[in-house]
Structures are given as structure tokens and as C-alpha cells.
Amino acid sequence: MGSELLTVEVAEQAGVVLARVRGEVDMGTAPALRRGLDEAAEQRTGEQPVVLDLSSVGFLASAGLALLVEFHRRLTGEGGALRVVTQGGPVLRAIQVSSLDKVLTVYPSADAALAAHG
């Protein structure tokens, strides 16, 4: 699922819903990210967490940050959790500069996020 500049692949793995995002997230691609996040939320059962793997994202604009906050609130409101994966670079910087690292749970790898409990 996605656009020419952004793809989102959603699958269940290791007891969580894993959404792998590739490309750049900006105003033009944010709707594709929203569709992918909605698909991930719909695939959840019970309080299953969603792991959002942004390791292959090269740019994360404010439109993407806003979606992360919205999705985090949605999942926690439903008793779930959002685990964000980024290996650093511009995506982690965008999360840190906006102080979202104080709100979101960020992991350095998909394996770490998949292995997390709670």
C-alpha cells in the first residue's frame, strides 16, 4: 500500500502488527502513511501493539510527526501501544527536535521492538 514515493507493508509478526514504511513522509505522502496506519490498526486483535518500522524512511516532515502522535493516541486509547523503530539519522532527529521521543517509545531495531514486552 502506498504511493510512488512511499510504501507501507503491514503484516502480523511475533504477536504484533508490523508496519514497514519505505520512502519519504511529507504532506504529499502523509495520506499513504495514514492508510497504512489505519490498516495496521484494523489488523490488531485485542491490545496487540503496532511496531512502526521507519528504518527505511529518509525524511519525516511535520505531517508525518502529527500522524505519529495521532496514531499513538488512538492505540493507547484502545489499550494498545505504538513502538516506533528508527536507526537514527533525519527521522530520529525529527522525533527528538519535536520532543516526541518523550511521548513515543522509540527502538533502534525492529528486532528490539518485536522483543519488547508491555
From TrEMBL:
Domain STAS, by residue range, is 6-117
Query: Pfam families from the entry?
Result: STAS
Give TM segment ranges.
Answer: none
Q: What are the recorded GO MF terms, alphabetically?
A: anti-sigma factor antagonist activity
By its UniProt entry, which CDD domains does this protein fall under? STAS_anti-anti-sigma_factors (cd07043)
User: Which InterPro entries does the protein's record reference?
Assistant: Anti-sigma_ant, STAS_dom, STAS_dom_sf
What top-level branch of life does the organism fall under?
Bacteria
What PROSITE patterns does the entry give?
Answer: STAS (PS50801)
Q: What PANTHER family does the annotation carry?
A: ANTI-SIGMA FACTOR ANTAGONIST TM_1081-RELATED, ANTI-SIGMA FACTOR ANTAGONIST TM_1081-RELATED-RELATED
Q: Which family does it belong to?
A: Belongs to the anti-sigma-factor antagonist family.
Q: Could you identify this protein by its name? A: Anti-sigma factor antagonist
Q: Which species expresses this protein natively?
A: Actinokineospora bangkokensis
